[in-house]
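Q: I have 453 residues here and want to know how they pack in 3D. Can you give me a structure?
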Amino acid sequence: MKSISRLISHLFLSISFLFLYYVFYRSEIYHDGAELTYYLKYYILAFLLIIMSFITYYIPKIFKINLLVFFISILFCLYSTEGFLSIKHKKFANYKNLTNKDYDQRTKFKIYSDLKKNHPKIVVSPPPVHFSNDLNFDYAPLSGIANRKTIHCNENGYYSIYQSDRYGFNNPDGEWDKAKIDYLLIGDSMVRGACVNEHNTFSGNLKKIKINKDGVLNLGQTGNGPLRQYATLREFLYLKKVKRVIWFFSEGNDLKELNEELKHQILKKYLDDKNFSQNLVKKKNEVQKLLLSELAIVEQELKEASLFEEKIKRSFLVNFLILKKVRIFFLNSFFNFIKKKDYFFLKEDFKKIINLSNNLTIDNNARFYFVYLPIYKRFQLNNNNETFENYKEIIEIVNNLNISVIDINKELFDNIKDPLILFPFSAPGHYNVKGYELVTKTIFNKINELEKK
């Protein structure tokens, strides 16, 4: 009995050290220390396991045997869950079954390189956040490269590619020629139409379901937070006669982005001076030259990201053994839950920006609507509550400004048995085609309801 007890402790300790060695190998040898931040949580877990393994040498034998049984049971549950998730989220096979097409597994750099052979002017446009404050650019661009075939992203089995308009947004250019604009959309990558084709974006769906032939303009850009969105309104709203402005708030990152935007010397001027303007429309040529000058840097970043993606690819068996999906769904979520937020909710600044945006819209004889978009994490581990990502506070701030709020979580997601079906293959990401469609219909119906009152 004593030898068995000691063997169990040896087993725990050996497994713990093997785990530590694997973490060290992946972090310091395979990735040459470049991904230490990512692997830090696994170092912590490894040392905790080692400490617990040493403790087992001093606990009663019967308790140790029970601990081994518990440990084996946990492993069985984890691998059973990994198997279930692997089947449920087998996106390559699911995509093939749904479309009879192969999932495009190319990296963004690879598809960019492939398409560039036949389309020399195709681009991966640098987003506005590329032009950070510390690099002293002459402008803070708020759009992408104009009049170019533009590669966006792939979460649904194919890369979304669109022809940018005269200012670099994801619109058919003819929308700018329409006398009236029924809906002008402001937001981040979700509004830009991340990972779906243009006709399946919020703006594309609005064009399908509305009756009149007035225009729909999409001024969304990847990484835009509240201050960039307000700046975009200041620079582009006056160009057209707009009936409605729909301001999209992305629960996942808008508050974090606001923290960075308020440090940006150019962007901050929009908040401090109501008359400030970069005159981005009049200086379109200069802004486009700046955007094009950064293409070489974007290409290099894509190449480096591609090399990293290729480096971390593993076989299905290896992914199963290292519990890849379990770690993504549970362990990473746990560490994200316990870690301290790396940003502050700057309530007064947020309130001021929303109020200024509403007033600017009213001054231009348009109606302002605030749309709250929930993210995947809200539904992943029972985070659907009022405190998650300052949900309740944000809604209250906007309501207190007498602004119409369209809460997509309340109006749509709370009424769906499994909200994850509105995300690509029920996995983390932006909305899928169905998600974009249902969110758009919810917004359209809610606006009609509010305007009938």
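Q: Anything worth noting?
A: The mean pLDDT is 89. The two ends are 79 Å apart (CA to CA).
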